[in-house]
Request: fold
Amino acid sequence: MSLSTLARLAGVGKATLSGLENGTRNPTLETLYAITAQLGVPLTAVLSGPAETPTVRGTAVGATLLEVFSDTDATYELYRMRVSPGPAQLSPAHQAGVTEHVTVFSGVLRAGPVDAPLTAGPGEYLRWVSDVPHSYAAVGDEVVRASLLLRYPRVTTVDA
Amino acid sequence: MSLSTLARLAGVGKATLSGLENGTRNPTLETLYAITAQLGVPLTAVLSGPAETPTVRGTAVGATLLEVFSDTDATYELYRMRVSPGPAQLSPAHQAGVTEHVTVFSGVLRAGPVDAPLTAGPGEYLRWVSDVPHSYAAVGDEVVRASLLLRYPRVTTVDA
DNA sequence: GCTCGCCGTTCCGTTTACGGAACGCGCCGA
DNA sequence: TCGGCGCGTTCCGTAAACGGAACGGCGAGC
Reply:
């Protein structure tokens, strides 16, 4: 399933899909639904709740993740991330070969391996190999909004 | 929880919330997430999969529902609806006092009580008391997109 | 080696979701 | 009875998501 054919089948623009996969778009429900309906995937499958860094109910601290896209090969997962000011959020090591790509939209984010975090402001980009524990923290008192792309080494799956 | 306070807490405009509840907006993930995060409700809770009229996997026929909003009193539920050309979709009677409001965005929809369905085109609006079996069908060969609001009689709940 | 077709990206004009402000309404206290 | 406050709706300018078209890159086939 190529991006072009999915765009045609789902009745959305290729630009929309491209932007979605690269985390540069904030899709409407209409768009996301058209795509998932075509894929035969329930929305709840791609909109999994907070996974690695659960939100604490009733508080404004912490980071929340919102998975917005995941390809059928499970080679990458795209999240929208919000990191509120406060103590750093920790994430355990992933499997070997996983790379994390973060693009910051607003605020200043300090993230990466716990022993060597990186800093990025609006429009900037971070990447690290995530087979070691890593952290996320907002620098300053502004909420950080960013996209987080997890890229996995290719896995063998049964095509639907 | 009033619309005004929810808008302030969630950091979204009152116009956005108002339009959402009336089915005249097609929210972005960002917006919907801001609201549900403030309510302490996971996105998957408001984005329940097709309920009454399940989609048949791998086919393009039938109607799909996408719940996009539900207030904490459970007095109304807002769905986005897509009805594909083909045989009419049936829905059983709801509890007494439930009213269904449908606003058509595109296509022509024929819906309502099975013995007296109504027809509406783009921009038009249907309403009926849904304590009898009712149906939905697309007129012509164009997919119908519409919003569906289920309004329940007030129920007694414990305020959060 | 060249050409054709499909890939994903980028550009661009249109559409529309967005937040802020202004509005009318209803409730409540003075 | 009147004024004030909070409610939900509507108006409006701005920001951005949208689809279509154009682009360069890559692989297959003649």
Observations:
- Chain A has two domains: 1-47, 48-160.
- The radius of gyration of chain A is 16 Å.
- Chain A has four helices and nine strands.
- Residues 7, 11-16, 19, 25-28, 31 of chain A lie near DNA strand D (CB under 10 Å from a C1').
